[in-house]
Design brief:
single chain; two-stranded antiparallel sheet; 5 helices
Length: 115
């Protein structure tokens, strides 16, 4: 009987959700790619789980959702910052009185002032 518990699919779902949470906390977004298929295979086992276990799984899934949203905000923030850095390397751009874009400076001097 103890061996049945070792291969309980609901336990495996909980373990996977914990692993996903850890990957998100550590910023290992690439590690998330393999989890979806594994969870989908185990999902039918949830129909047999008792309510207390389902509540625990739901709590872990909601935690992961919050972590995933935070990771998304972090990635978008990093993208904006990289865009700012790339623009500063291109130099300052302004518009003349006729609305034409004009480059000013070489960018490297702006970058050194910024950092």
């Amino acid at each position: 009987m103890g061996n049945e518990r070792a291969h309980d699919p609901v336990d495996e779902i909980e373990t996977l959700l914990d692993q996903i949470g850890e990957a998100l906390k550590q910023g290992q977004l690439a590690a998330l790619s393999g989890f979806e298929d594994r969870l989908a295979l185990l999902e039918p086992a949830l129909a047999e789980a008792d309510q207390d276990r389902l509540i625990g799984i739901l709590a872990k899934a909601e935690r992961n959702q919050r972590l995933l949203r935070a990771a998304g905000r972090g990635v978008r923030s990093a993208q904006r910052r990289l865009t700012e850095i790339a623009r500063s390397l291109q130099g300052l751009s302004t518009y003349d009185r006729k609305g034409r874009l004009q480059a000013r400076g070489d960018g490297m001097s702006l970058l050194s002032k910024r950092f």
